[in-house]
Amino acid sequence: MAQRIDVKDLDIYYGDFHAVADVSMTIDPRSVTAFIGPSGCGKSTFLRTLNRMHEVIPGARVEGTVAMEGVDLYGDDIDPVAVRRQVGMVFQRPNPFPTMSIQENVLAGVKLVNKRISKADAADLVEQSLVGANLWNEVKDRLDKPGAGLSGGQQQRLCIARAIAVKPDVLLMDEPCSALDPISTLAIEDLIAELKQSYTIVIVTHNMQQAARVSDRTAFFNIAGTGKPGRLIEMGDTGTMFSSPTEKATEDYISGRFG
Ligand SMILES: Nc1ncnc2c1ncn2[C@@H]1O[C@H](COP(=O)(O)OP(=O)(O)OP(=O)(O)O)[C@@H](O)[C@H]1O
User: Fold this and answer.
1) For the ABC transporter domain, which residue ranges apply (predicted)?
2) Those residues with Cβ within 8 angstroms of residue 251's Cβ, 6 or more apart along the chain or in another chain
3) Residue 108 Cα to ligand 1 middle (Å)
4) In a domain, 13, yes or no
5) Ligand 1 pocket, residue 56 CB under 6 Å
6) Which of 19, 96, 154, 177 satisfies CB 3.0 to 4.6 Å to 150 for a cystine?
7) Who contacts 137 (Cβ-Cβ below 8 Å, separation ≥6)?
8) Residue nearest to ligand 1 atom 31, measured at CA
């Protein structure tokens, strides 16, 4: 299930704008990697290149390689839709489909791939995915009610259930807790700790404490000024990054001196 990702010499563009320069990193399987850094340094942009969502924007492109278990996701024979199935994504704001029921939401991605799933298999998958997202006990008696009727934290866990229902290898999370209250945030953080047993997880967060709590490794990105590309400054074991980073910019950012 979980997969290792090797990024090599990646440059990311929006048309002529060079948004992120020269990133090389390894993301370990069955672990949580956090991306931190000031606004505009390209964390979300880089995250979206890991499942080829970046190129959905007109004019957006990359140079370099993103390899999953040695296979370049940008290779000529690779189907981007298959990549997005293998590498799921959870966004900042919970985005369940408002007119769909809870169970239809869980199955939304699966039905795109497998229209002929039997009722029994679908019911099993709904239960499995909701259990996996720590939501089953709260919703099992109202699976046919609208997903939009859940609390924000529950909606985010529903989105995680929808993402894991297609059985991805990797889960990308772009500030998944920024719209949530502290209790829901802790529920998602606990869930991330459980999910890493099975998945490779990458999370963008502005919250230093969250990066320190949930991640095994942390990557710090920075930007030298407006119009300049963001760069990966330093990446390492989260404990070390927060206690004794190598770069002064990392220390300044972590200690709240800028950003
Ligand atoms: N769709 C887009 N078209 C053109 N430029 C974009 C687009 N999305 C982002 N950018 C630019 O790319 C750069 C990196 O943005 P990005 O959102 O990746 O940074 P970030 O580190 O995730 O920021 P934040 O922490 O504020 O979310 C910024 O200069 C931004 O303006």
Assistant:
1) 5-248
2) 245
3) 28
4) yes
5) no
6) 154
7) none
8) 40
Phi, psi of 233 (to 5 degrees): -90, -45
At 39, which amino acid appears? S
Number of domains in the chain: 1
In a domain? residue 19:
yes
Quote the tokens at residue 258.
Answer: 């800028």
Q: What is the ipTM of this complex?
A: 0.98
CATH at 63: 3.40.50.300
Is there a domain that residue 110 lies in? no
Number of Cβ within 10 Å of residue 126's Cβ equals 23
pLDDT in tens, 69-125: 999 999 999 999 999 999 999 999 999 999 999 999 999 988 887 778 899 999 999
Q: Whose CA is nearest to atom 9 of ligand 1?
A: 45
State the virtual CA torsion across 21, 22, 26, 29 in degrees, nearest 10.
40
Q: Report how far ligand 1's centroid is from the alpha carbon of 43 (Å).
A: 8
Would you say the CB of residue 41 lies under 6 angstroms from ligand 1?
yes
User: Measured from the CB, is residue 232 less than 6 Å from ligand 1?
Assistant: no
Q: Which structural domain, as residue segments, surrounds residue 22? A: 5-96+169-254
- Structure confidence by residue, pLDDT tens digits, 39-62: 999 999 999 999 999 999 999 999
What is the whole-number distance in angstroms between the Cα of residue 40 and the centre of ligand 1? 5
| Ligand 1 site, residue 226, Cβ cutoff 6 A | no
